[in-house]
Amino acid sequence: MNKFNAVPEEVRHFLQAAGHHDNLRTANYSLSINAFRLFQSFVDLYSPSVFSVVARLTGLPNEKEVVSITADVLVDLWDKRQELSLEKQTGVFIYKIILLHIFSYLQARGNEDRISLLKNTLLIDPVYYSSASDS
Question: How far is Cα 73 from Cα 52, in angstroms, rounded to an integer?
């Protein structure tokens, strides 16, 4: 049996939506099903709020793009889960990661109007939108 097929459906769907299914097939073979369940719980815990924030801040009408950004944020958070677990204010940490992804996305698409709106509306340390425009 292919180990990829042993991964819970929701996790496969998330990773495929995020374009990370190849990582699952190669690097993650050694992870146990318990690790995938932990990842699934992580996604279940954070995805609704991350999706909501991404949708509101980007203003994107296309749900597929919001899902894609959300998936990228969740993968980034998963990669930084040790840092996240050490944070006293996890919400702030998560918000910073979301902002980095949103500003990078908007910058890559030249959506300066939305970037300007966010800069003028949100209380954001300039490091979050300047780093996105520097990349």
Answer: 12
